[in-house]
Automatic annotation (TrEMBL):
GO function terms (MF aspect): 4-hydroxy-4-methyl-2-oxoglutarate aldolase activity; metal ion binding; oxaloacetate decarboxylase activity
Taxonomic lineage of the native organism: Bacteria, Bacillati, Bacillota, Bacilli, Bacillales
Required cofactor(s): Mg(2+); a divalent metal cation
SUPFAM superfamilies listed in its UniProt record: RraA-like
Class of the enzyme per the UniProt entry, highest EC level: lyase
Organism of origin: Paenibacillus cremeus
Residues where substrate binds: R116
Name of this protein: Putative 4-hydroxy-4-methyl-2-oxoglutarate aldolase
Listed InterPro entries: RraA/RraA-like (IPR005493), RraA/RraA-like_sf (IPR036704)
EC number: 4.1.1.112, 4.1.3.17
Reactions listed under catalytic activity: oxaloacetate + H(+) = pyruvate + CO2; 4-hydroxy-4-methyl-2-oxoglutarate = 2 pyruvate
Length: 213
């Protein structure tokens, strides 16, 4: 990014971190094109006089007020990028819906909002980079705004189709106009780094692994 004149551009806040890391195969890493969506704080509440009424109102909220229409547009290689209502204790990326997005072809999820069911997410090895762990559910707390729009994620403008790269160090957004140029430069840097570190491995008598091959 520096080499193409984008110093300090696209570097997402360090507050957005991987929920888990796998040092055996780096399967927590994600790279793909942004499919964006935004949720906002709710301006209405749920008032139910019985448990059954609450169940019906909750069902209505999920269907009409805080649905996930963007999920129908997921293509192989996408990264679901959600601008969430960050001042609410909501974990809208849970173990079920995130799993469905991954099965639909998404490489992972990046959000400034919250994740929940984190034990299951970690066990299922679903790549999520989130701002916090949230306990609440969507009904009565957040509502859907729009998808396929520019969003602000960790102080960075993310547009539909921009490239998202995320690993243990954090998240970077590469503007789509610069992707090819950045990819060539990044590959050169990576290959040089592998070659240098491979020499250290050999000098130390360590078995070579995929990070230096």
């Amino acid at each position: 990014m520096d080499a193409v004149g984008l110093q300090n551009v696209g570097i997402v806040s360090r507050d957005i971190r991987p929920l888990w890391r796998n040092f055996d195969d780096f399967s927590h890493r994600i790279c793909g094109f942004a499919l964006t969506a935004r949720f906002v704080p709710a301006n209405q509440a749920i008032h139910a006089s019985s448990v059954e009424e609450y169940k019906q109102l909750k069902k209505h909220w999920y269907k009409e007020i805080a649905p996930r229409p963007f999920a129908d547009f997921i293509q192989d290689g996408d990264v679901v990028v959600i601008d969430g209502a960050t001042n609410t204790d909501v974990g809208f990326c849970g173990s079920e819906n995130t799993f469905s997005w991954i099965n639909a072809g998404a490489r992972g999820v990046v959000t400034n909002g919250g994740a929940r069911d984190t034990d299951e997410i970690i066990k299922q090895k679903l790549p999520i980079y989130c701002g916090y762990i949230g306990r609440g559910i969507r009904p009565g707390r957040i509502q859907y705004d729009r998808h396929n729009i520019p969003v602000n994620i960790g102080g960075v403008l993310v547009r539909p189709g921009d490239l998202i790269v995320a690993d243990g160090d954090g998240v970077v957004c590469v503007p789509i106009e610069k992707v090819e140029e950045v990819a060539v430069i990044a590959r050169e840097i990576q290959n040089d780094d592998k070659a240098s570190r491979r020499k250290h491995y050999e000098k130390a008598g360590l078995a070579l692994d995929f990070t230096v091959l």
